[in-house]
Each structure stands twice: as C-alpha cells, then as structure tokens.
Amino acid sequence: MGISFPLVRDLLEQAQRGHPSLNLHLMVTDEPTTDDEIVATGCGTAGTVHGFKGRWGLDESIDAAKLWLPQLIQGQRMILEQIRNFVDPHDVCPILPFPARSPRLADELIAFYAQEFENLWQVDARTIVYATENNPLDLYRTILRIDDARKRVFAETGGSLIVLSPIGSKVLAVGALMTAIERDFPVVYVESIEYTVNFEMIEQNRHKGGEIVHVWLHGEAYGKPSGNESASS
Length: 233
Known about the structure:
The termini are far apart. The chain has helices spanning 4-18, 32-35, 77-87, 105-112, 114-120, 136-153, 170-183, 199-204, 227-232; strands at residues 24-30, 38-48, 65-71, 91-92, 95-97, 129-131, 160-166, 188-197, 211-218. The chain is an alpha/beta fold. A three-stranded parallel sheet has the order 4-3-7, with helices on both faces. A two-stranded antiparallel ribbon has the order 1-9. A two-stranded antiparallel sheet has the order 2-8. The chain has one domain (4-232).
C-alpha cells in the first residue's frame, strides 16, 4: 500500500494534467488463497500513506466527526489497534467481504474480532459495511454514498472526516484507493517491515489460480473519431 497507492495517484495526476488521451489501467491478481498465507509484520507505528493525508490534521477538521472504515483481515488485531489509537475515531464501520470466496468469511471475521466489536469499537450490526470481495466498484460506490450522507448530517456541526484503512483484500483496497483519490480521504496504515510466508500451502493451492481484476482509471474508451468519421456518421 505504501508503494502502490502513491504510484497510482502520481500516474493518474500526470495523465489528467497533460495526457487527456492516455489510458491508465490498474490491474491486480485476485488470489485470496495465496494472500492468506502471507502475513505482514508491522513496524509498530501508524501513519498516513504518502500523498494520502487528505484533510487530516488541518484546522478545518478539528471538530469533524471522524469515521474510521477499516477493512478487516484475519490475524491483524495488533495492527488495527495501532491504527485505531492513531485515528481516535468517533465511530467505526468495519468493512467485511461479502459475498466472498468463502460464504462464512464475514462471520469468521466478526467472531475473530468479537472483542473489538463489542468493547473497543462499539460496532452496531447496522453499521457494518459489506462489499463484494472481487468487485472494487462495489466498495467504491458504498463509501461515496456514506460520505454523501454524512456531509448532510454533519454540515452544521464541524463536518465529517472519513478515514480509510484498506489492509485486507487487494481488490477491495482498489475500491478504497479510488474513493481516497476522488474525495481526498486520508488513508492510515502501519508500514510492513517483513512478511511470513507459508510456501508449502501456497504450493498446494497453486492449482486454484486467481482472476485478474481490471479498473480503467483514465482515458477514452474508444478514442475520439476523426473528422471524416464524424462527417460520415
């Protein structure tokens, strides 16, 4: 995230400034069985991703109602707690993958983070965000709707500030990335310093493969017609 997010934003801004006809595509491999066997170890300090500070720390956001949207993944309780302490949100709306490759994945995550849901985050069942695991546009549209609704509600009381932490599925992280760029949301994470990989399980699951998820970020889908084509049409 610390590399891919700034890189995508820089390329998109360059295309928007001087290359209106340039096509910019973002593709990731959706292979959850492999991702599950790669566990990151954080550096222990939470912070904003470079280029994704948004309105974080500005005077205009001091009184804003902070909503933290963490994307949940197994085994990252410590990292999520470090991020929560850094953000210090007023409300938490966890993002769960559903529908997902495993029909019970969302339930398993709720069970794993039961203590956080009930005691630390005080999550209401009605505030959980469900997003299709292999469709970044589903989460993208959902976060935009949440932001639009909160802007109206908190317009007279200091405004709203949404903070994203897409530390789970790479595909859902793309949806969060798109909203962060469009609405200038801060993205908070803990930088990874090493990874523990279960190569044996990865080799066993290699036959399952994965899918390429593609998002068209910028450009003309079919190009602009030439003068002759316009006249003949």
